[in-house]
């Protein structure tokens, strides 16, 4: 049986740095707003940390006075526009991004084990999430074929103010994909989801996984614990033995 470990991307595996922090991802949003609604804007007009790409798209449009129903109807076009812009400029995917300390070593240790499955569970649209992993040279360390739970898999517009509910669905979707890959190999023994935001640890529990918080984003240990008291909260992912023990793999 396998232990399924899913990771959030931004703030958990990856740190945004410099004046061009997470540059291409933000530009993809801007390009989509312009292409679909002829709207010159960006995602910083709203609070978006910890949300999902799909919900951010909707929330920005509502902020600008566009009817939610109209925004929802155009969501597939908006997502397609984001993906097209990001893919066309994929050479810039790593600009303003760097791996957080301990991430590569942890993924290498997990990838070397036959009793572990590793995936992404992130608010990113799937092609964008994997393009970031490509740009940072770690995509090959995730279970093959790659799978996970993404903003392209699910969006409930009612969750704009509680984005963790969408993320909980991503956790469940990733587990279902893993079970399909594991058919005949014993299934899933335990599930863990690792993230840096209160929404991540809430989503872990809501999606039936053990919550592991890391204080590597913009949120404090106290905020993570208050969001989900049962979460295990680590300073970061640098202590390999501590992290493996958290996953029951020591």
Order of helices and strands: EEHHHHEHEHEHEHEHEH
Measured as a percent range, the helix fraction is 40-55%
Task: Kindly state the number of beta strands.
Answer: 8
**How much beta, percentage-wise?**
5-15%
What is the average per-residue confidence, as pLDDT, rounded to a whole number? 96
Oligomer: single chain
The rounded Rg comes to: 17 Å
Strand order, sheet with most strands: 5-4-1-6-7-8
The global form is globular
C-alpha termini separation: 16 Å
Instruction: List low-pLDDT spans.
Output: none
User: Tally the helices: what do you get?
Assistant: 10
Class based on secondary structure composition and strand pairing:
alpha/beta
The main pleated sheet reads as: 6 strands, parallel
What do you see in this structure?
With 250 residues, this protein is an alpha/beta fold. The protein has ten helices and eight strands. It has a six-stranded parallel sheet with strand order 5-4-1-6-7-8, sandwiched between helices. The chain has a two-stranded antiparallel sheet with strand order 2-3. Helix 9 links the parallel strand 7 and strand 8. The radius of gyration is 17 Å and the shape is globular. The mean pLDDT is 96.
Give a summary of the structure in a few sentences.
The protein is an alpha/beta fold and 250 residues long. The chain has helices at residues 23-37, 53-63, 68-73, 75-88, 103-111, 126-135, 164-181, 198-206, 221-227, 240-246, and strands at 2-7, 14-16, 97-99, 116-121, 148-149, 188-195, 210-214, 232-234. Helix 1 packs across helix 4 and helix 7 packs across helix 8.
């Amino acid at each position: 049986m396998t232990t399924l470990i899913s990771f959030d991307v931004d703030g958990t595996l990856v740190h945004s740095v410099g004046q061009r922090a997470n540059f291409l991802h933000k530009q993809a949003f801007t390009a989509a707003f312009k292409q679909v609604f002829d709207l010159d804007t960006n995602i910083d007009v709203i609070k978006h940390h910890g949300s999902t790409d799909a919900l951010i798209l909707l929330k920005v449009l509502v902020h600008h006075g566009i009817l939610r129903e109209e925004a929802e109807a155009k969501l597939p076009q908006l997502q397609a526009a984001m993906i097209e812009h990001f893919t066309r400029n994929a050479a810039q995917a790593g600009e303003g991004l760097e791996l957080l300390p301990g991430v590569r070593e942890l993924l290498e240790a997990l990838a070397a084990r036959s009793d572990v499955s590793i995936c992404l569970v992130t608010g990113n649209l799937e092609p964008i999430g994997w393009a970031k992993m490509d740009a940072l040279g770690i995509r090959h360390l995730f279970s093959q074929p790659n799978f996970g739970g993404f903003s392209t898999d699910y969006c409930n517009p009612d969750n704009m103010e509680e984005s963790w509910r969408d993320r909980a669905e991503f956790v469940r979707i990733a587990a279902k994909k893993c079970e399909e890959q594991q058919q005949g190999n014993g299934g899933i023994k335990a599930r863990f989801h690792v993230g840096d935001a209160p929404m991540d640890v809430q989503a872990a529990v809501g999606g039936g996984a053990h919550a592991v918080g890391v204080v590597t984003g913009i949120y404090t240990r106290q905020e993570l614990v208050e969001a989900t008291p049962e979460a295990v909260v680590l300073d970061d992912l640098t202590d390999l033995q501590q992290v493996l023990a958290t996953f029951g793999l020591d």
